[in-house]
Amino acid sequence: MSPLCIDINCDLGEEAGHDDELLPFISSINIACGAHAGSDAIMQRLVRKAGAQAIAIGAHPGYADREYFGRRNLVLPSADIYQLVFDQVASLRRICVAANQPMQHVKLHGALYNQSANDPVLARAVCDAVYDIDPRLKLFGLSGSLFLTIAAEKGLQPVAEVFADRRYTDEGALVPRSQAGALIDDAAEAVNQVLQMIRSHTVTALSGKTVPVKAETICLHGDGSHAVAFAKQLYKTLGELSISIRPV
Fold this sequence. Notes:
Strand content: 15-25%
CATH topology: TIM Barrel
Number of helices: 8
Oligomer: single chain
CATH superfamily: Glycoside hydrolase/deacetylase
Radius of gyration: 17 Å
Distance between the termini: 19 Å
Shape: globular
Number of strands: 10
């Protein structure tokens, strides 16, 4: 049986041009913190808008690599990873405090997200940085990943994330964007994948294999060309099935 509610999160503040159109259809926002994309002005605007709409606010730190939008794998010392994440999360936290809005969570972006999923050194550096800012922050991470285990060991609240618009490998990882078929570009297919994940706790991998997942929050990428259409269709379908959309 489907759950009565699910969280829909979206990566915004990345200057894709349709942030405001997506806000009515989500329950959690991951705001770019100025490294891979974004700026203080964008963060301030989105914090105000999310707060006014009771959308849970989260930081979305990534590599400071705007040329590749934070989606290129980098090799950095763990101390640099710690500082990279600490500085970005702290920046958004300061803006939230100034706006009298709570910050609920942190979700990594792009290559940093994928590399940290099963790299214990990176994962611990990230978790240490988040914990040192606020141990009450939730940490979104790939369902089934080592990253979530390390977050829990650190004393943070891990939140298992799945993706509406990405396809999966047989191991439960995301198919690399460089590989054909990595992205879902049909709204009906994205919605069906979400329903499978929240109803049966599985996803069908690109190969056709059925892979177990835990769906506590569903991600829609805000920079995708189909983002608004996907968000509207998902919101409509979940409403018809009496599945409410709420923050974690």
